């Protein structure tokens, strides 16, 4: 299932499943994640990290998404 939205001005898209997977973040349910602001990718996970979140706001969005969907 794909979920997308905006949190505090940060856009996100995630692909998540009902059960965890070896391909998910921390072997969890999120297998793909993308966070951006002003069309700049601040985090990208596609069965592995391409871009880890380093921006304070992106880290907060990432933490929220992990808690809710992973």
Structure description:
This protein has about 70 residues and is α+β, with helices and mostly antiparallel strands. The chain has one domain. Helices cover about 20% and strands about 45% of the residues. The chain is built from 1 helix and 5 strands, in the order E-E-E-E-E-H. It has one helix at about 55-70, and strands at about 1-5, 10-15, 30-35, 40-45, 50. The chain has a 5-stranded antiparallel beta sheet, with helices on one face. The radius of gyration is 11 Å and the shape is globular. The model has no long low-confidence stretch (mean pLDDT about 95).
Salient structural properties:
70 residues; 5 strands; alpha+beta; five-stranded antiparallel β-sheet; globular; 20% helix
Quick overview of this protein structure:
With 70 residues, this protein is an alpha+beta fold. It has one helix spanning 56-69, and strands spanning 2-7, 10-16, 30-37, 40-46, 49-51.
């Amino acid at each position: 299932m794909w979920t997308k939205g905006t949190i505090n001005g940060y856009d996100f898209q995630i692909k998540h499943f009902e059960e965890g997977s070896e391909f998910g973040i921390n072997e969890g349910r999120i297998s793909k994640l993308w966070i951006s602001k002003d069309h700049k990718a601040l985090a990208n996970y596609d069965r592995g990290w391409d871009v880890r979140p380093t921006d304070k706001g992106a880290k907060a969005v990432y933490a929220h998404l992990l808690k809710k969907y992973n």
